[in-house]
Write a sequence for this structure.
C-alpha cells in the first residue's frame, strides 16, 4: 500500500524558515518525481517544485526560486521541502504528491501558519 | 508558462443531473511525444486532491464511469453524469505537458 505521510503543523514567525517532511511507503519512492504543492486558504493548488528521489535533481517554480529547497533521504524514503524567509502570504497547506500512469498519491497536507 | 482557465468557477447542480466543466490552456497541450497531458482532480472539503482523469480521457482506478474527460489541443471538458452528493467539492484541471505544471483555478460544485 502506497502512502505519503507528512510531518505535523508548524507555526513560524515572518522571516523564519520551515521544513516539511514527507515519508513514502510502498514502491513509489524511486518510481516518480515527488512534487510539492502549496494551497493557500480558499485558493487552488499551486505547484512549487519537484525532486527526483532517485538522483536528487530538482526543479522549482519561478515564484519560489531562491527560497525553496527540496532534498531527499533515500535511506528513510523521505523528501523534505524547506521554505525560507517566510511571509504572511506563505501561510498555507503544503502537500507532497506523486503522480504517474499508475495513479496519484498525496500526503495528508501540512498546515503552516505564519504569525508574529 | 502555460496558464489554465476554467469555467464556470461555481456550479450548483441538482442531484442526479449532469454537469460539465470547461478547461482551457494558453497553449496547446500536445506533447512532442504525441500525448496530451491534461489531468482532472477532485478535492473534497478538508481533503487532499485526488486525480480522476489523466491524459484527457483516462479514468484512474476506482473512478466511477460517471466521470468522463474529452478535448484536444487547448480545450478540454470534464463531464459528470448523474451528480451524487459525494461529488461536491472543487474540480481542477492541470497540465503536465509543459514545465512547470499548472493547475486551473478550480470549479466549485455544490449540490442544488
Amino acid at each position: 500500500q502506497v502512502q505519503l505521510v507528512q510531518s505535523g503543523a508548524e507555526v513560524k514567525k515572518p522571516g523564519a524558515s520551515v521544513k516539511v517532511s514527507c515519508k513514502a511507503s510502498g514502491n513509489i519512492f524511486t518510481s516518480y518525481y515527488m512534487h510539492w504543492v502549496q494551497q493557500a486558504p480558499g485558493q487552488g493548488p499551486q505547484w512549487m517544485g519537484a525532486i527526483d528521489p532517485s538522483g536528487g535533481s530538482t526543479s522549482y517554480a519561478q515564484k519560489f526560486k531562491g527560497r525553496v529547497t527540496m532534498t531527499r533521504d533515500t535511506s528513510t524514503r523521505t523528501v523534505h521541502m524547506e521554505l525560507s524567509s517566510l511571509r504572511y502570504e506563505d501561510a498555507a497547506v503544503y502537500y507532497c504528491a506523486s503522480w504517474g500512469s499508475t495513479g496519484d498519491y498525496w500526503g495528508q497536507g501540512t498546515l503552516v501558519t505564519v504569525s508574529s | 508558462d502555460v496558464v489554465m482557465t476554467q469555467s464556470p468557477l461555481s456550479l450548483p447542480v441538482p442531484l442526479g443531473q449532469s454537469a460539465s466543466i470547461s478547461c482551457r490552456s494558453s497553449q496547446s497541450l500536445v506533447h512532442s511525444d504525441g500525448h496530451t497531458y491534461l489531468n482532472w482532480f477532485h478535492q473534497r472539503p478538508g481533503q487532499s486532491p485526488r486525480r480522476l482523469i489523466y491524459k484527457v480521457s483516462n479514468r484512474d482506478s476506482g473512478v466511477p464511469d460517471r466521470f468522463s474527460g474529452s478535448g484536444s489541443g487547448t480545450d478540454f471538458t470534464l463531464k459528470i453524469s448523474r451528480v451524487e452528493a459525494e461529488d461536491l467539492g472543487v474540480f481542477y484541471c492541470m497540465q503536465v505537458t509543459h514545465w512547470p505544471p499548472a493547475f486551473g483555478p478550480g470549479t466549485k460544485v455544490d449540490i442544488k
About this structure: Residues 48 and 64 of chain A are 7 Å apart (CA to CA). The radius of gyration of chain A is 13 Å. The mean pLDDT of chain A is 94. The first strand of chain A starts at residue 3 and ends at 6.
